[in-house]
């Protein structure tokens, strides 16, 4: 759009810009020409078909008239009506070559920085203190981090909010359990990451032991009252868990740091005022002693209105009140205008209600928008929730270790000449890359099956396939030497004679529009799928078109395409949070 600067040459948009006035003249009103890549021509528009119904005229006649009026001469080698009324466009080599040269000279590969940066807050990862991170947190971390990377690269101000579960009634029993174990031993257990056994042991005592239950309740009261010793123990629990989570983030190679922890506890002082304000606004209803808001449009299966409980009967505030306070803080104090909540689909209703209440209270003004970036579950090979062989929930750290071990083994087998240190480095990049890519390459709304063999396969829509394509190009350049490329951008002559060259060029030009689209939809499988198409187009090109054995301008031009392919793969994978080793 007009708000973007420095777009080199987006062919799709150029063609659309030429067709738009022609369509408008024919229709007597603005029409989106819907120019898309097509299997039947370089680009195709099907807008005449939709327009035919409205104008009551045959679509082919409309398409022909549009073509008569459109000035396409410099861009297209052919423009014709086909089938029931499609417009097929074949781009002229000159225009195509110029577009590629534009990309070569653009360090941003055709993706402009936004002219008007937004403050975007991304709520992601958000594990719970003294509990193991589960695969849901893994998905949130992976998707949230790709979101942060892509929006940063586009030029937005990004706030990473790790909404850690660090408050609530369970802390009574957790602190009591810590005291029972002895501070030192208990803290040690948490540091090594044995979070689930710690939590389960506390829970078991709580369920079985009346005395422990009573102590736990008193401990919650002490925590809320700010009792010094209790708060110190609480900090200990939180700190050890944070340390453990940071270790997982390091392994996972995500951009989250200790500065991004913005746990639920931060909002405790705001909960009272938030509920009071809801009361003043006349939004509160009493339901059985609990303070509730009934957001319009929130109804259960039988049509009965559903409440968001903001203060429980016992006077305590819970998860919904905390999210309301956080949202108010994020728009009001942090100035966020786009709020992204990367949380599993089971919490969809919760966020719908929180957003509706926030809007009603004026905390989500018309200039800001909140989105639940939901995602499905990770399943085991049996189609059920992912479990370890022992039947317990999989521990994330173990899962990542296994990914790295498997990929290191793969790297050694593939390339026995690799030194141990490099094999380990490649194993890390490939193993972690494979886990992330398997997640990001599936439509996030869907569940996906966690399958080692598939995600580590060297062919298919996988990280190793893309990383391998990248490494292959790098090795080509090691052999070609430094002087393989044209001296200046102006000297580039883009080879387009072979259909495989043209196909690769279109894939490379398609990178920028996909990135811009994913910024809006946060559907990373579109980006992954496009990168896979780039790598596949490269393989086909590389099979048909000799590079190092070609000569003169053809060799130079093909090396340019190789170089551009490597840059697109590297940049695209970087946006997904995946590394590209120089050799594999
Ligand atoms: N800690 C929560 C959980 O594990 C996720 C928090 C998501 N973010 C939020 N603002 N509610 O389910």
TrEMBL record:
<dbReference type="InterPro" id="IPR005148">
    <property type="entry name" value="Arg-tRNA-synth_N"/>
</dbReference>
<feature type="short sequence motif" description="'HIGH' region">
    <location>
        <begin position="127"/>
        <end position="137"/>
    </location>
</feature>
<dbReference type="Pfam" id="PF00750">
    <property type="entry name" value="tRNA-synt_1d"/>
</dbReference>
<dbReference type="Pfam" id="PF05746">
    <property type="entry name" value="DALR_1"/>
</dbReference>
<dbReference type="InterPro" id="IPR001278">
    <property type="entry name" value="Arg-tRNA-ligase"/>
</dbReference>
<dbReference type="Pfam" id="PF03485">
    <property type="entry name" value="Arg_tRNA_synt_N"/>
</dbReference>
<dbReference type="InterPro" id="IPR014729">
    <property type="entry name" value="Rossmann-like_a/b/a_fold"/>
</dbReference>
<feature type="domain" description="DALR anticodon binding">
    <location>
        <begin position="466"/>
        <end position="584"/>
    </location>
</feature>
<dbReference type="InterPro" id="IPR008909">
    <property type="entry name" value="DALR_anticod-bd"/>
</dbReference>
<keyword id="KW-0030">Aminoacyl-tRNA synthetase</keyword>
<dbReference type="InterPro" id="IPR001412">
    <property type="entry name" value="aa-tRNA-synth_I_CS"/>
</dbReference>
<dbReference type="GO" id="GO:0004814">
    <property type="term" value="F:arginine-tRNA ligase activity"/>
</dbReference>
<comment type="similarity">
    <text>Belongs to the class-I aminoacyl-tRNA synthetase family.</text>
</comment>
<keyword id="KW-0547">Nucleotide-binding</keyword>
<dbReference type="GO" id="GO:0005737">
    <property type="term" value="C:cytoplasm"/>
</dbReference>
<keyword id="KW-0963">Cytoplasm</keyword>
<keyword id="KW-0436">Ligase</keyword>
<keyword id="KW-0067">ATP-binding</keyword>
<dbReference type="GO" id="GO:0006420">
    <property type="term" value="P:arginyl-tRNA aminoacylation"/>
</dbReference>
<comment type="subunit">
    <text>Monomer.</text>
</comment>
<dbReference type="GO" id="GO:0005524">
    <property type="term" value="F:ATP binding"/>
</dbReference>
<dbReference type="InterPro" id="IPR035684">
    <property type="entry name" value="ArgRS_core"/>
</dbReference>
<feature type="domain" description="Arginyl tRNA synthetase N-terminal">
    <location>
        <begin position="9"/>
        <end position="91"/>
    </location>
</feature>
<dbReference type="InterPro" id="IPR036695">
    <property type="entry name" value="Arg-tRNA-synth_N_sf"/>
</dbReference>
<keyword id="KW-0648">Protein biosynthesis</keyword>
<protein>
    <recommendedName>
        <fullName>Arginine--tRNA ligase</fullName>
        <ecNumber>6.1.1.19</ecNumber>
    </recommendedName>
</protein>
<dbReference type="InterPro" id="IPR009080">
    <property type="entry name" value="tRNAsynth_Ia_anticodon-bd"/>
</dbReference>
